[in-house]
């Protein structure tokens, strides 16, 4: 009897050992290939580059944390479902391996690329088009990133999320949504980041966020970051360029919206679990189409504590204008340092106030009125960079949340922040650092000088300048030495073509042998 028990114990230990595989023995994260056009492609292959898989669906079924699925160019059928999670350190990645990776249609499913209950997934570089409903759907999943993708002509939405936190959609293009929106973040999905996307020609909103209290959850989307997006030609069927229903504690910054045909940015409550409150709308450029509604729309009395700073808001519509509130005394509402037009409303757009009447309510005390011809390089060609002398230059207020512009250039480029999505960048900007009997110069150039051009540096401490000519065009730095400490030097940099200057900038600096020096630099005016 004892012998039988001993045998049973040994068998149990062997079975337990077979079930518990040490982490070191598990297969490491791997890179696999999918290539529909490879003559030997098969889902029974090992998934190597010489012997790739045939379908993305097979890749999704066998993927484990840390795996990267490289998808070769070709047209693949949609209806793909991803149900396996990665981890924070080892996401599962589906990445285009070359241009022209297209997922077309959704097969027998509603959505072309469906991520459900699968966390830490990355979708990178795919074109997803012609789905019955959504190009990409993210369902009950967190930390999913969709980047560098094109979402084209899908039936309802380019991308749709529900009950999914920490979604990131960046550097994507979403256009042609037949029924609704380019991107739709729904159902209590918190901490979304929508960054650097082009959202255009969608029937309804470019971006729609809706807490959807009717679908369960708390009905609130909180802590969203919406930045550096270009949103245009949306809303023929209604809906805002950026539409926020039940969105709270969020930042909307550095976005360019133009030629949208309903509203620009709307903060409101219809199906949200609360009003849209405690949001910051900062450094956006909003130019409404002639058939558009208000640039910024905040219609409900429970949309409280929203702040609008450093925005350009212009409207080509003959009646509507910059900002419409639902009440003249909306709790916690702040608006200032904007470039606006002379039209506002405090009853959801039914009436119209001048800027002076609007300011009498305590709003936009430092804001200015300007037209596109006074602001932009070429609005008719959709170039909304600030032109030299623009009325938006140096008119903003310093904002801790806005340190760069839509293109990632630092703010401010001068002494004061500009208003709008773009910080004005002078064609030439000279910088310098004082040192012991020396000044170290460098400069940035925001145009393309002719290859035959040269640089000239002239500097002086009294009245007679010393000139250094014929510095080659690619040069962007130069050191001045043999200077006198504690003396102000005026330094001018010119770009020269055939001995004629065509760019110039001037600064003043003081060389020093001390570690602490303030102030030792002035910028020329």
Kindly describe this structure:
- This protein has about 525 residues and is mainly beta.
- It has three domains: about 30-180, Pectate Lyase C-like (3 Solenoid), CATH 2.160.20; about 235-425, no CATH class; about 430-525, Immunoglobulins (Immunoglobulin-like), CATH 2.60.40.
- The strands form eight sheets. It has a twelve-stranded parallel β-sheet, covered by helices on one side. It has an eleven-stranded parallel β-sheet with strand order 4-7-10-13-16-19-23-27-30-33-36. Strands 3-6-9-12-15-18-22-26-29-32 form a ten-stranded parallel β-sheet, with no helix packed on it.
- Helix 2 (about 55-60) links the parallel strand 1 (about 30-35) and strand 2.
- The longest helix is centred in the first third of the chain and has 18 residues, at about 1-20.
- It is globular, with a radius of gyration of 29 Å.
- The relative contact order is 0.05.
- The model is unreliable at about 1-25 (pLDDT under 50).
Write the layout of secondary structure elements.
Blueprint: H1 2-19, E1 31-34, H2 56-62, E2 68-71, E3 74-77, E4 80-82, E5 92-96, E6 101-104, E7 113-116, E8 121-124, E9 127-129, E10 134-139, E11 144-147, E12 150-152, E13 157-162, E14 168-170, E15 173-175, E16 183-186, E17 193-195, E18 198-200, E19 207-210, E20 221-222, E21 225-227, E22 230-232, E23 242-245, E24 247-248, E25 251-253, E26 256-258, E27 265-268, E28 280-282, E29 285-288, E30 296-298, E31 307-309, E32 312-315, E33 323-325, E34 334-336, E35 339-340, E36 344-345, H3 355-360, E37 368-369, E38 376-378, E39 383-386, E40 428-435, E41 438-445, E42 454-460, E43 466-472, E44 477-481, E45 489-497, E46 500-509, E47 521-523
Parallel strand pairs: 1-2, 2-5, 3-6, 4-7, 5-8, 6-9, 7-10, 8-11, 9-12, 10-13, 11-14, 12-15, 13-16, 14-17, 15-18, 16-19, 17-21, 18-22, 19-23, 20-24, 21-25, 22-26, 23-27, 25-28, 26-29, 27-30, 28-31, 29-32, 30-33, 31-34, 33-36, 35-37
Antiparallel strand pairs: 38-39, 40-41, 41-44, 42-43, 42-45, 45-46, 46-47
């Amino acid at each position: 009897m004892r012998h039988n028990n001993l045998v049973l114990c040994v068998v149990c230990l062997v079975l337990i050992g077979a079930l518990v595989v040490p982490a070191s023995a598990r297969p490491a994260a791997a890179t696999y290939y999918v290539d529909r056009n490879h003559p030997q492609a098969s889902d029974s292959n090992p998934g190597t580059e010489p012997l790739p898989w045939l379908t993305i669906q097979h890749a999704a079924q066998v993927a484990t944390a840390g795996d990267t699925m490289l998808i070769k160019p070709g047209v693949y059928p949609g209806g793909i479902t991803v149900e396996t999670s990665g981890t924070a350190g080892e996401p599962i990645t589906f990445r285009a391996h070359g241009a022209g990776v297209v997922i077309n249609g959704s097969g027998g499913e509603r959505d072309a690329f469906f991520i459900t209950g699968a966390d830490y997934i990355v979708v990178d570089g795919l074109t997803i088009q012609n789905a019955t409903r959504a190009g990409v759907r993210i369902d009950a999943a967190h930390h999913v990133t969709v980047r560098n993708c094109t979402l084209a002509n899908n039936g309802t939405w380019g991308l749709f999320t529900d009950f999914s936190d920490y979604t990131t959609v960046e550097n994507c293009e979403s256009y042609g949504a037949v029924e609704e929106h380019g991107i739709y973040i729904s159902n209590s999905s918190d901490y979304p980041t929508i960054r650097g996307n082009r959202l255009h020609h969608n029937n309804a909103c470019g971006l729609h966020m809706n807490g959807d209290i009717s679908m369960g959850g708390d009905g609130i989307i909180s802590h969203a970051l919406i930045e550096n997006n270009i949103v245009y030609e949306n809303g023929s069927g209604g809906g805002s360029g950026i539409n926020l229903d039940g969105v709270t504690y969020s930042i909307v910054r550095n976005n360019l919206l133009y030629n949208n045909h309903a509203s620009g940015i709307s903060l409101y409550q219809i199906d949200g679990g609360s009003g849209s409150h405690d949001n910051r709308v900062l450094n956006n450029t909003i130019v409404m189409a002639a058939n558009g509604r208000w640039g910024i729309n905040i219609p409900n009395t429970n949309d409280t504590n929203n702040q609008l700073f450093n925005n350009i808001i212009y409207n080509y519509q003959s009646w509507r204008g910059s900002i419409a509130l639902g009440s003249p005394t909306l709790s916690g509402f702040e608006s200032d340092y904007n470039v606006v037009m002379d039209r506002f409303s405090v009853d959801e757009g039914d009436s119209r106030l001048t800027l002076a009447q609007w300011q009498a309510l305590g709003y936009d005390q430092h804001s200015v009125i300007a037209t596109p011809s006074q602001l932009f390089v070429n609005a008719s060609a959709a170039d909304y960079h600030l032109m030299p002398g623009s009325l938006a230059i140096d008119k903003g207020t310093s904002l801790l949340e806005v340190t760069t512009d839509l293109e990632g250039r630092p703010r401010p480029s001068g002494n004061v922040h500009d208003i709008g999505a773009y910080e004005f960048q002078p064609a030439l900007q000279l910088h310098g650092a004082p040192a012991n009997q020396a000044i170290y110069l460098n400069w940035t150039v925001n145009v393309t000088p002719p290859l035959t051009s040269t640089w000239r540096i002239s500097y002086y401490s009294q009245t007679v300048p010393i000139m250094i000519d014929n510095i080659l065009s690619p040069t962007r730095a130069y050191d001045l030495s043999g200077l006198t400490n504690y003396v102000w030097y005026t330094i001018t940099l010119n770009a020269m073509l055939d001995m004629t200057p065509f760019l110039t900038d001037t600064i003043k600096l003081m060389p020093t042998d001390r570690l602490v020096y303030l102030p030792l630099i002035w910028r020329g005016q």
